[in-house]
Known about the structure:
The protein is of the alpha/beta class and 300 residues long. Helix 7 links the parallel strand 4 and strand 5. Strands 5-4-6-7-10 form a 5-stranded parallel beta sheet. Strands 2-1-3 form a 3-stranded parallel beta sheet, sandwiched between helices. Strands 8-9 form a two-stranded antiparallel ribbon. It has 12 helices and 10 strands. Helix content is 46%, strand content 15%. It starts with a helix and ends with a helix. It folds into 2 domains: 87 residues, Rossmann fold (3-Layer(aba) Sandwich); 145 residues, NAD(P)-binding Rossmann-like Domain (Rossmann fold), CATH 3.40.50.720. The structure holds NADP nicotinamide-adenine-dinucleotide phosphate.
Amino acid sequence: MLDGKMVSTKVLENIKNESVSFIEKAGRPPGLAVVIVGDDPASAIYVRSKERKAKKLGFRSEVISLGSSVSDEELTSVISRLNKDNNTDGILVQLPLPDGFDTWKYLDMIDPQKDVDRFHPVNLGKIMLGRTNIYPCTPSGVVRMLDEFNIDVSGVNCVVLGRSYIVGKPMASMLTNRNATVTICHSRTKNIPDILSGADMIVSAIGSPGFVKADMVKDGAILIDVGINRVDTREEAEEFCTPQEIEKFKKKGYAITGDIHPEAFKKSSFYTPVPGGVGLMTVAMLMDNTFRLFMERTGS
Ligand code: NAP
């Protein structure tokens, strides 16, 4: 099992240890600004967790909460102010924005050198070209876990399920740059089970509980589960979740599972659990990106 808790703790400890001398030299801490629009409860939880982690590392953390009725002018001026602010190294607009907001308009507005999520077209382009070493947090977390366990993907037949700019596309580029042979599948792909059955490695990021079943994967495959799905019925919990999550369901009335069925993990050589896998890496890599942008901006 590729333990996300162990690796993410290590990433955060490294940042904490490494940052002390750089903060002293720069005369200020790394600064992360998060802009959240509207009152989506899941987004609020993610933002609080980012803020807590940043503060724990001694970073400067600024959260700008705007109501869903915020005007285009106001949101634009917040991003412009953060672009100019010398104490802000990383800017992040929490996604998804409420309905009616043009996401790309605001992502495009972030200074690419402060774009901590790396979703700006300039940064996505650099990722495709292999011209950067700062990547979107979730695929970056996957690669960090592979490195931790010395898993070399060169020559590996890898299937990435999902083609979002948040996970699937940058993930596929990063694996290609590491010499994997990558196939991307999405909702229009035909015969996904056939494609999966030949894969040495599967990275699933589609958001569908238990989508990848044991009979679709080959013995010894590496299974990376990015999906985070909440299930609210006992039947679903029993069908898709691990015994620990089924127990949680009994107490809390909901459980979390990934896209890969727990039975499939039994056939794998390596797998990432959900919860406790890639999800924990994402916020750690956000802190890592903030620290890297701080180092770039302060010339460290
Ligand atoms: P997204 O933007 O909704 O993209 C989902 C992708 O999956 C799309 O490319 C879609 O295809 C494809 N897809 C959906 N249903 C499919 C099916 N039945 N068969 C094949 N492909 C299918 O989602 P996302 O932001 O990439 O997130 C994906 C999952 O990862 C979600 O569960 C999310 O919660 C999780 N996630 C986890 C983390 C983490 O930290 N672990 C971070 C981000 C996201 P089309 O393009 O054809 O529509």
